[in-house]
Specification:
The complex is a heterodimer of chains A (about 90) and B (about 210).
Chain A: H1 2-20, H2 24-32, H3 38-59, H4 72-89
Helix pairs in contact in A: 2-3
Chain B: H1 4-13, H2 23-27, H3 31-52, H4 59-78, H5 89-99, H6 109-126, H7 138-157, H8 162-171, H9 175-210
Helix pairs in contact in B: 5-6, 8-9
Classes of the chains: A mainly alpha (about 90), B mainly alpha (about 210).
């Protein structure tokens, strides 16, 4: 049953991503080129809403947030590799 | 199999530092102050965007729906042991391990969520018209496959992809996600720059050949 909820949520996400043409690759490219494209705006709206709602429900104890440990070198090198890969794969 | 050198390099990179995993803790301030500053900055940016370049309002509900799905993932997954928001890299690894029959334990909640994404994407496309498989020219295929490999390696090293870090991790103020997001922006900037230089060069070459 829980697996079904996961699949249904993923399906909704896939549906929404396709219909809205939201794409993190476009969002990053917009940001880098200082363009105010729709993907960048969608990302910023989603980020703001989540900043408020997720931290609020965590403060009320609805969810617990296990933060990953900070490994700056891995995060930075991995991020750069991912960013280059994103442009090459157009994803 | 990954060579031992690559494993050693990855674990050398992955050495944690004595820094708090949370941005507000590392800065010595409260969560809500950081949230307020980030929200105010984004709000200002969005207002400036609207003034500079009016766009169809569809992006506002789209962002809200995406955020709602993110919250639903946090809440819905918690009961099934999934303590994170929207994420693709980690679950994709679990899914791949299950497909190639590596025993890494049961398929997690996130893996089933990721499995649903292409199904939903197909449905969204199919309800608009017929869907067909497409192939890309061989050079494009190689380029994309190489890019995909870099995304896999990068996403594994940085413990998350663009969604897992730049949306989910950043919204819970994870320091490592902020670093990874800066890295991704730098990687995109570098790759776009190289792309432009390459294109300008080939244009110059074409112009010279014509002459």
């Amino acid at each position: 049953m829980r697996g079904f909820s996961a699949f249904a949520l993923g399906m909704t996400l896939g549906f929404v991503l396709t219909r809205t043409d939201f794409c993190m690759h476009s969002a990053f490219r917009d940001a880098v080129a200082r363009r105010a494209g729709p993907s960048l705006r969608i990302w910023l709206v989603a980020l703001t809403v989540q900043l408020v709602v997720v931290n609020a429900i965590a403060a009320f104890g609805v969810i617990s947030i296990p933060l990953p440990i900070t490994a700056p070198a891995a995060a930075l090198v991995g991020g750069v590799a991912f960013g280059i890969g994103m442009v090459l794969a157009k994803g | 199999m990954v060579t031992s050198e690559a494993t050693a390099f990855a674990s050398w990179l992955a050495v944690p530092v004595a820094l708090s995993p949370s941005i507000p803790e590392a800065l010595g301030t409260s969560t809500w102050l950081v949230v307020a500053v980030m929200c105010a900055t984004i709000f200002g940016l969005l207002l400036a965007f609207r003034r500079r370049e009016p766009l169809d309002r569809g992006w506002i509900p789209a962002g809200m729906i995406l955020a709602a799905l993110g919250v639903a993932t946090w809440v819905g997954g918690a009961g099934a042991g999934w303590h994170w928001g929207l994420s693709v890299t980690g679950p994709a690894r679990s899914l791949l391990a299950a497909v190639i029959a590596v025993d890494t334990g049961p398929l997690d909640w996130g893996a089933l969520m990721v499995a649903g994404i292409p199904a939903g994407a197909w449905l969204a496309a199919r309800t608009r018209g017929p869907v067909t498989w497409r192939t890309v020219p061989a050079p494009t295929f190689v380029r994309r496959a190489f890019g995909g490999t870099l995304m896999g390696i990068g996403g594994t090293l940085a413990a998350g992809c663009n969604i897992g870090n730049a949306l989910t991790g950043l919204s819970v103020l994870a320091l490592s996600s902020a670093i990874a997001t800066v890295g991704m922006a730098a990687g995109v900037a570098a790759a776009v720059l190289i792309e432009h230089v390459g294109r300008a060069r080939s244009r110059m070459r074409l112009a010279e050949e014509r002459r």
